[in-house]
Write a structure and sequence with these properties.
The protein is of the alpha+beta class. The protein has a single domain (about 10-135), classed as 2-Layer Sandwich (Alpha-Beta Plaits), CATH 3.30.70. Helices cover about 45% and strands about 15% of the residues. Helix 1 (about 25-40) packs across helix 2. It is globular and about 50 Å long.
Length: about 150
C-alpha cells in the first residue's frame, strides 16, 4: 500500500498585539504546555517553545494534512482564549506571523536559540531579531505591514 510521508520542521514566531508585554511568568510554563497539547492534537510535534513577554518562538513539525496558515491560526486562536481565561483579559496575538523552515541538521541550533531567548533579548529587540530572520531567509517585507 502506498504511503505519503513528510517531515517538515518550522520555526514559528509571532508577537502579542502591538508587542505589549502581557505574557507573565505566572502563566508561561502552562502556556507552553497548552500550546504543546494543541499542536499535538493537530499532529505536530514541538521540539522547543518559549514565550517571551511580547512574542513567542515555537520549533515544531508541520503536519502533512494542514497548511502553515491553519496550524498558526489554530495555535493562536486557542492559546489566546486560554490566556484570557487565565485573567489576562485584553490579550491578543498580532495578526501576522513569521514561519521559517529548519533543516534537520540545524534542529539543535534552533532549539538552543529558543531555549536562550531570555538571555538573547537582553541584547536584541524583537523587531531587530525578526529583521535578522528576514535577512537570513531572504524574505522581502515592508516595515509598515510587519508590526501590528
Amino acid at each position: 500500500m502506498p504511503q505519503s510521508l513528510a517531515k517538515i520542521y518550522i520555526h514559528c514566531v509571532f508577537s502579542t498585539k502591538k508587542r505589549i508585554p502581557l505574557i507573565i511568568d505566572a502563566v508561561r510554563k502552562d502556556l507552553h504546555s497548552y500550546i504543546i497539547g494543541t499542536l499535538a492534537n493537530l499532529g505536530s510535534y514541538v521540539y522547543e517553545i518559549y514565550a517571551n513577554p511580547d512574542h513567542i518562538h515555537v520549533l515544531c513539525t508541520l503536519p502533512r494534512t494542514i497548511t502553515v496558515a491553519e496550524l498558526i491560526s489554530k495555535m493562536k486562536t486557542s492559546s489566546s482564549k486560554w490566556i484570557k481565561k487565565q485573567g489576562i483579559k485584553n490579550f491578543s496575538w498580532q495578526d501576522g506571523y513569521g514561519v521559517f523552515s529548519v533543516s534537520s541538521s540545524k534542529l539543535k541550533v534552533v532549539e538552543n536559540y529558543i531555549m536562550n531567548q531570555a538571555e538573547h533579548h537582553g541584547k536584541l529587540s524583537f523587531k531587530d531579531e525578526l529583521r535578522d530572520f528576514f535577512k537570513e531567509y531572504k524574505v522581502e517585507y515592508d516595515e509598515q505591514y510587519v508590526w501590528d
